[in-house]
Design brief:
The chain is α/β, with parallel strands linked by helices. It has helices at about 25-30, 40-45, 50-60, 100-110, 130-135, 170-185, 200-215, 230, 255-265, 290-305, 330-345, 385-400; strands spanning about 35-40, 65, 70-75, 80-90, 115-120, 125, 160, 190-195, 220, 240-245, 270, 310. Strands 1-2-5-8-9-10-11-12 form an eight-stranded parallel β-barrel, surrounded by four helices. α6 (about 170-185) runs parallel beside α7.
Amino acid sequence: MENLRFIPMEPSPIASGLSPCLKSPNAQARSAPFKIYYLLPRLAGPVSEWDRHFKRIAGMGFDHVCVTQPFEPGPDGDLFLTGQHDRPDPALGIEGTTEAAVRIMAQHATDAGLGLLADLMIDRVAATGETALLFPDLFGAPERIGMFIDPRQPASLFRAVPARFEEAETFADWWAERLSPLVEAGLAGFRLVGLERIPAPALRLMIDATRREAPGCRFLAWTLGLPWERTAAFADAGLDAVFASTPWWDGRASWYIEEHNILQRVAPPIGVAEAPFQERLGVHERDTERRRALARRGLQIAALSGGGLLVPMGFEFLARRQLDPRFGEPADFNEMGREANADLAPASRNRCSPATPPTVDSTPAPRTDRHPPRIAARGNTAHRRSSSARSRYADDRAAARPLPARP
């Protein structure tokens, strides 16, 4: 099977028509765009088997791999609810400390010419994990996240306790003490998730405290699903990148331009071909050619962001299976490959030539009900919507309680 070939990053053609905020120091003082492949260790197998994945990832043109949190999860196994930060995730197949595990992972990535990033959930931990029990002054705020059952909320919130930010400097120093050794062990930086509650000054303190010990550490904020005003508050937090709501853009609606302007004030936006742990782009399409066209279009739109590209594991196989933070094994990833062989082998696939700048093809947009939570509901759009679509957006605006962004 021939893999998708991903587009090299070019300066965003969208940006040339946007507001003067693109000239801000935050937007200019950044390095080359990130090209990130998001890898789920439970699907990849133990680290000793990662060389074959890294070789394939580097061959597709990526320069970074981002993995889920390397820490030991809580009793229910949710990768975003850490039980103990000092021990590694057992799925990595490495005994000892988290730092030792990261050192081995980073060496495998370096050997393949890749930088290694890792997720970091900063506003909650597993309710019954050791971290929550050992540091009650830092985790276990009075308003317990999962105190009330709300079917709109991710189930993981009912098993979590939130971080406390009353003592912001203590919070920052605690994280710096754990993150800086991981950077010294070879991590290039972190994808920050769980930004719904953290005050912007506390985030800045954490970033500064970590960089005092590990100056080269990069911080990428997962801003999909965040209210725009919350994203804008991070303008002075020292972030290296943010993420754009490209999976939900139809290539026309003006909300994306508004969001792009806000993101650029904070840090260069990375385009997302498909959001990890959310519904796959072509899950409702049975026709292989249609799914392939949607995948190409998703890649091209994501590449327009100018700040980089993130592609989740399995996207290259046009996978229908949604990534799961609690379950998964290498056999599931192998099945993705077999399904792709069955779907794609008979057909020749078009590549995006490295010499070709990103453009959006004429493939019809994904279903009109695909829009970013609380984001597409804001601002005006350049096109008239049907009454049913207007009703959906009105329902979003009327939501009394903001929902946390899924990682």
